Amino acid sequence: MKIWRIVGVVVGVVVLAGVLFTAYALITVTHGGNEQAQQPAAAGDPADLPAQMARGEYLARAADCAACHTTPGGRPFAGGVAFKLPFGTIYSSNITPDKETGIGDWSDDDFVRALHAGVDKEGRPLYPAFPYTSYTALSRDDIVAIKAYLFSLPAVHQAPPPNELSFPYNQRWALGLWSAVFLKKERFQPESGKSEAWNRGAYLATALGHCGECHTPRNVAFAMDESRAFAGSELQGWKAYNITSDKEHGIGDWSEQDLVDYFSKGHAAGRGTASGPMSEVVGYSLQYLTPSDLTALVTYLRDVKPQRGGEPVPPAPVAAQVAAAGGLGEQLFVGACAGCHLDSGQGRQTDYAMLVGLRSVRDPRATNLTQIIINGSSLHVGGQEVFMPSFGDAYSDAEIAALSNYVTSHFGGQQGTLSADDVARRR
Amino acid sequence: MFVLSINGNDTQVDVPDDMPLLWVLRDVLGLNGTKFGCGMAQCGACTVHLDGRAVRSCVLPVTGAVGKKITTIEGIGATDIGKRVQQAWLGIEVAQCGYCQTGQIMSATALLAEKAQPTDADIDAAMSGNLCRCGTYARIRAAIKQAATGQISLPQTVA
Known about the structure:
The complex is a heterodimer of chains A (427) and B (159).
Chain A: H1 2-28, H2 55-62, H3 65-69, E1 82-85, E2 88-91, H4 108-117, H5 132-135, H6 140-151, E3 164-165, H7 175-182, H8 196-208, H9 212-215, E4 233-235, E5 238-240, H10 256-265, E6 267-268, E7 272-273, H11 277-284, H12 291-301, H13 328-341, H14 367-375, E8 377-381, E9 384-388, H15 397-410, H16 420-426
Antiparallel strand pairs in A: 1-2, 2-3, 4-5, 6-7, 8-9
Helix pairs in contact in A: 1-7, 2-6, 4-6, 8-12, 10-12, 13-15, 15-16
Chain B: E1 2-6, E2 9-13, H1 21-28, E3 47-50, E4 53-56, E5 69-71, H2 73-76, H3 80-92, H4 101-114, H5 120-127, H6 137-149
Parallel strand pairs in B: 1-5
Antiparallel strand pairs in B: 1-2, 3-4, 3-5
Helix pairs in contact in B: 3-4, 3-6, 4-5, 4-6
């Protein structure tokens, strides 16, 4: 039968293509791309870096290595931070110079290859929870400087717990196929028509700071959808907001000072306070950026292509809305929240407690708001801890739903529609 | 080393910069009138004034108080409103166990400085962060009204 012959040929071609692609992926998995690339001007450390801070330390902070490789209260960079994914749990690695459990016997080339190609010393693919899709753009000099800093720290002998992943996600070799499709092993290329600050900001945001790993939506294969860069996403139960220059959906309406305040202090009055994963970014990374790098980052972000996406954020109201229907939510707010936040939402003794104008209180689904009520919030900035206690154990799902709805309507002017079941799912 | 302005006096303290003001007041300076309650700004027992505003000293790092006028319960009687509030507190015999009354008096004084004749709703809003586990809220409200009007005020009782 002719038809079967054609089917046979088609199947054969598909299988052959699959085999060839797999072979290609496996052969190229450890290739890091152009390792001879010239260091662009946008890479390196800024000219206004305080002399006492080593270049590698500064770059390691800008790359926010600590957020994933240091457990709360644990030894720096000893790994073991758990990442709960839909298909299991993986743990970050020990990147201290311990020879057995850390990276003590890695050469510079091994370490550069890990960041450029996403493979370990033996050439086995790493899970893309490690943001090598962004770090691949880093210059070799910067990566070597980061390694030199890590190797100047005390070695910690501590093996992370083994990963707990189900089949087929525990098949590391298959990640090579993913990398072959989604990992563009290219170094950062400055755009010639743009200013020096813009290019430095782009390098900070896309390579070192890897902002897109959280703020860029992902496609069905969990790869960043670059056509919608920085348009906002949701992960680990938190909203990573749209940070494009769109005035309604993004941060186009924020002033430069708002952005600098947010990065350096974790708070911009009437705009936002860093909580959850973002409080780690500010605490470990952004607060240490030099003034010139802050300016560069702001310059770049303000020029990111505007994208609609996520909840639109209408202009911030100047004061609390007229009291919405009170009831349980208002009672709870007055009893448990007004002590710090004040009835007006202006914050009693610190701007950090200001509710008015925040995106989290203007989100009708109250995603981040309920996270903060349930888990509390903690921000280490400027040598101090700004915190809010958690209320998850104190209040029932129905109470937290009522409280959320009161806050979104009273301070955000939105109709909160959260139910007790919604809250239960977020615990 | 920090210089703090407490009850009109400049006082030097040598403490870590993230030490809460409450610790400085009680443990370093011996001003024990301000009470420790919950340690997380939930009860109001540690309330002091910072430039006249009621703040919770248990979560306020000492650096946040530098350059501002700190008033504690030890100094509040030196102000006209504070004196009236304290007299009303005595007149109505507000306190039962008395543990929260430092914070209550500080919050009440800050309220009256801002609103000389507060309504019941103003009192509820301003005093909502100050817990009294003896439940003397009706007497607290009466004392605030008495301090505001200068007229004897009877606590509202359940009809």
